[in-house]
Specification:
The structure holds two protein chains of two kinds.
Chain A (H helix, E strand, L loop, with lengths): L3 H13 L5 H14 L5 H13 L2 E2 H39 L1 H6 L1 H26 L4 E2 L2 E2 L1 H16 L4 H15 L2
Antiparallel strand pairs in A: 2-3
Chain B lengths: L2 H14 L2 E2 L5 H11 L5 H13 L4 H44 L3 H29 L3 H15 L5 H27 L1
Helix pairs in contact in B: 1-4, 3-4, 6-7
The chains are: A mainly alpha, B mainly alpha.
Chain lengths: 178, 185
Amino acid sequence: MTSLLGLFLLFFQVSLFGFGGGYAMLPLIYQGIRELGLMSAAEFARLVALSQITPGPIAINAATYVGYRFAGFPGAVVATFGSVLPSILLVLLVSHFITRFKESRALVGILQGIRPATLGLLGAAAVFLGQGTLVIGSQPVPLAILICLAVMVLALVRKIHPITLTILAGIAGAFTIR
Amino acid sequence: MKPIFQLFLTFLKIGTFTFGGGYAMIPAIRRETVLTRGWVTEDEIADSIAICQTLPGAFAVNIGILIGNKVKGWTGALAACLGVVFPAFVSILLVLLVLGQIDNNVYVLGALEGIKAASVGLILVTMYQMGRGILKKRIGVLIAIVSFLLIVFLNINAVIAIVFGGIIGYFELMWAKRKEGREKQ
C-alpha cells in the first residue's frame, strides 16, 4: 500500500503548481505517479480517458482515481483533499489581500512567465498521453491517429464541444479499435 | 433554505456539469451566481473569474471557494468546495467499480482507446488556442519551447519548468522597467 502521506503530498504539489487548467496538470500527475512507482503509461492514459468522461475537474478525478487505485477509499479521500487544500489556502489568502494582489507588479511578471511555460506542459501532456495511445512502442496506431486528427479538425473548424467530441470518439473507438 | 445548503447545491450542480476543463463552465457559473442567486454582481464575478484563472489548482474549485467565502465566510467556502468536488469524487469511484467488472469487453476497451486518442487531440487544440492568446513576445515562445524540452527530453520535473517560467517572467519585467526608466531620463 502506498503511503497516504505520499499521495497527499503528490496531489498537493500538483494543485499548487497546476497553472493553466486541468490538461496542464497532467505532466505533474504523470511524473509524480511515475516517481512513486505507482502506474504505467498505459494506466495513466486510462486515467485521463476516465477523467474526460466523468463529471468534475480533471485534477479531482485524477486524485480520486490514483488515491483509490493505490490505497483504497482512504487513499481517494486523502489524495482528493490534497488536491483541494492549495485552492482553499490560496483563494482565502488572495481574497484577503485582493487589492495588493491585483497591483503587485512582481506577480504580474511572474505570471507572464508562467503562462508560456504551461504551454510547454500541455505539449508534454500530449506526448506522455500520445505514447501508448497514438504510438505503442514504436508502432503507430492508425485508427487512433485518425480519431485524434478528426477531433482536432472538428474542434477547431466546426467548434464542436469537447464532451461531444469525446463521446463520438468513444463510439468510433468501440466499433473500430481492436 | 439556508445559504450554506444553497452554496453546496449550486456548486454541486456546477461540478456535475463540468467535463474536462472548468473554463467551459464560466457562462453557467455566471448565470447561477449572479442572476439566479444574486450572490455577486457582474463586476464581482468578472473579477473572481480573472483571479481564479490566474491561481493554480482546479478552476471550478477555486471559484467555488471564492464565492462561498464571499457569501458565508469560510463555512460557505467549504460548502461550495464540497459541492464541486463531490460529483468528481463519486463518479470516479463508481466508474472504477463498474469498470472492474467489464474490463475485458472489447467494446469498452475500444471506446477507451477512442477517448484517449480524442484527449490527445483536445490537449493539442487547447495548446493552440491558449498559445494564440499568450505568445505575443519572442521570450514567451522561448519559455514554452524550453519548458517542453526540459520535461519531455531531459525528464525534468514539470514544477521546475513552472518555476523557471516564473523567474524569467519576473526578470523580463524588471528589465523592461529599467529600460523604461532609462528612456525617461
